[in-house]
Amino acid sequence: MIINENEIFNIASESDFLQCALSIFNFQFAQNPVYNKWVKLLNIDSEKVKTLEQIPFLPIEAFKKFEVVSSPINSATIKFTSSSTTSQIPATHYVNDIKVYEKSFSKDFNLFYGKPSDYCILALLPNYLQRSGSSLVYMCDRLIKESKHPFSGFFLDDIDDLISKINQLKQTDQKILLIGVSYALMDLCDKDISLTDNFIVMETGGMKGTRKELLKPELHAYLKSGFNIEQIHSEYGMTELLSQAYSLGNGEFISPPWMKFLIREVDDPLKIRTDNKTGGINVIDLANYNSCSFIATKDLGKLNQNKTLELMGRYDNSDVRGCNLLMGNF
After folding, report:
1. 211 contacts 155 by C-beta, under 8 angstroms
2. What tens digit of pLDDT does each residue of 276-288 get?
3. pLDDT tens for residues 1-26?
4. Model pTM?
5. I need a surface site. Which of 83, 139, 250, 257 has the fewest CB within 10 A?
6. Are 226 and 109 in a shared domain?
7. CB–CB of 232/201 below 8 Å?
């Protein structure tokens, strides 16, 4: 079976999405040993899977234990890894065709923000820059290069240089995207920097023990007050995916046509919620067809009536006991 990449990135309807998702499900069931084993462990008959709700979602923890691939690892494979503490095992995502990732994040960004060349992009990602294998750094590096603005770039320790560039950019009508991990943006706004209307501030999450964990509304209130701006944008992505969802300032995440969210019951990880209440977030990322497109995350959220996603927090270890018991049989 050959997956048609053009079909993935040209989805125009719910029926297109379902047809493509079922094709990828059958492909990954046949070609991905880890996913195949998971589906069989759940005693699911793959031939009876006909709807999105019937598709089994692989627990995201599998990326910490196995090579989750649907096509052979080769000399061109790029290995993305998640950030972790010394006591944690990082997740590893083997990307066998980096051009699919580049196409996904480029089309995604253009869909919601326009051309990178319209922006000056300032990336404040210190903990990601200090290690190798970050898919977020890879994406930002490509967007920075495409922006072609002389001030665009990564900023690690030289905050004074970043502040100098911000102050110069405030005197122009240039569109600026300031993208950063939560704690680094909080550190920056503590410098009493007021931004102007031409700035978009986008947080990517990631306290990683550097500051007290805040809920999204608390974080955004802190940044809006510190930067003296009305909105904070957000990016929702992860090492194990090839696509991102964006919140354009209202706390509601929208995804590209080839990405979709389902919410599962907290106490029954195999049951999908349909009542717009909080549960575990399942992600369908059709661009991730060379790995696994159906992932059960450890994030909590809810879907609104308009199908936008709100993040509500994360599971603690005791909350995922159903999946943990099944994972123990791997």
Report:
1. no
2. 899 999 999 999 9
3. 678 899 999 999 999 999 999 999 99
4. 0.93
5. 250
6. yes
7. yes
